[in-house]
Amino acid sequence: MIGRTLAGRYQIAGRVGAGSMGTVYRARHLPMARDVALKILHPDRALDVESKARFFREARATSALFSPNTVTVYDFGEGDTGELYLAMELLEGESLGARLRRIGRLPWREAIVVAIAALHSLNEAHAKGIIHRDLKPDNLLFARANDGSGREIVKLLDFGIAKILHDEELRLSPLETAAGTVFGTPRYMSPEQAQGKTLDPRSDLYSLGVILFHMVTGEAPFTDADAILVMAHHIKTIPARPAELEPSVPQALEAIILGALAKETDARPPSAQSMADALETVLLAATPEGSLRSRSSLQASLRTATLACLVTLASASAIFLIARAIIPTVPLAPLARTVAQTTAVLAEAPLAPPISEHENRVVPMVLDEPLGSTGESTPSVAAPAVRAPSSSQTVPPTATTAIPPKSAARAPAAAVRSVEPESSEPAAKRPTYERFE
């Protein structure tokens, strides 16, 4: 087959692997210039009606699934010389079965992540009336992502013996649904599957419970060499507690595993989603307290910073509105700049000492120089005339009030109220102050 072009568009480049149903090749989809995994049914199988129906059932079942945790099917059909093929995404990685044979078992947190990914795939399949019926470690693949990150994505493979519940065209034949007919891998099949009974989605949950048991303990619940004996154990024997074989398994995780391995279907989780939610709860509960505390502290700091920003903004807005009401003729742009500068100074400088109720308060409005200047000159502005509360005389625009240096003693109140003669300085450099008794 290598070197041939199948169906006029798949150029076969090499052999990837083989199974009882067919052989998988690496091929190039010529019109799209994309590498795919091309599964071709064995020639002798293609002549068998049941095998042919099973092959197309896998193609139709898998092509209806779009979960990122399910292998993607691009195309299927029959070649020019009668070969039945299935074109899928080309995945590179290691199967869960190979990993368990290599390292023995997985840390229980990693096992939960794998199980949740498989449950996400099953949740979509079950919602579309598809029961996998052949869940086992070799059908779960740690696929390397194609984005160059090196991360792994768990993919569920091989829907070759999937049972279709809602599609009349793809329902199992009478031979496949006959009482006593058994499909699947004995070590991972459910009690009802071992007895050839009618299956529902909870059969897949039992099989996933067996896989989860295997991942955290390093072995399946029943490991007899005789397949008939293994199936009998699934029907009658209560499995050992996972924590007895691996003490690190949390009690909550053990309860979920044993619940999935219940002999009666009604005692198992009602759906793949509910089992995934329970596993996620265990994973979240196992988060170190220090991480939770750090997260809470970070959230509290963010809330405090946000509140401080809101208070500062409100204060600046209030200052702006008050100043605008007092001096409506002041241009908006310089006043806005002054508000921002004043807010910054107030946030950094210590509070000034209180002023006696008998002293006059002098409030300068600085518009042309920043506050907090290190120069010795006193900032000044030109301002409109202001009427003093104690006199009916209007203060001329050129009037000024001197501010003594910081080193000098405070002048008497009468001196502060005095008005100096008109200065010879330009109007832009002469300050005018509002005075209040």
Description:
- The protein has 437 residues and is of the alpha+beta class.
- It has three domains: 1-90, Phosphorylase Kinase, domain 1; 93-289, Orthogonal Bundle (Transferase(Phosphotransferase), domain 1); 358-370 and 378-403 and 411-437, no CATH class.
- It contains 14 helices and 13 strands.
- It has helices spanning 43-46, 49-63, 96-103, 108-127, 174-177, 191-194, 202-217, 227-236, 242-245, 251-260, 272-285, 289-326, 332-348, 413-417; strands at residues 5-6, 10-18, 22-29, 34-41, 73-78, 84-89, 93-95, 130-131, 140-144, 152-156, 163-164, 361-363, 434-436.
- The strands form four sheets. It has a six-stranded antiparallel β-sheet with strand order 1-2-3-4-6-5. The protein has a three-stranded antiparallel β-sheet with strand order 7-9-10.
- Strand 1 (5-6) and strand 2 form a beta hairpin.
- The longest helix has 38 residues, at 289-326.
- The protein is extended, with a radius of gyration of 40 Å.
- The N and C termini lie far apart (104 Å).
Key structural traits:
Transferase(Phosphotransferase), domain 1, alpha+beta, 437 residues, Phosphorylase Kinase, domain 1, 14 helices, 3 domains
Oligomer: single chain
The class by helix and strand makeup works out as alpha+beta
How confident overall, as mean pLDDT? 75
The spatial strand order of the largest sheet comes to: 1-2-3-4-6-5
Alpha plus pi helix count:
14
CATH homologous superfamily title of the largest domain: Transferase(Phosphotransferase) domain 1
CATH class wording of the largest domain = Mainly Alpha
Distance between the termini: 104 Å
Percent of residues in beta strands? Answer: 5-15%
Largest sheet: 6 strands, antiparallel
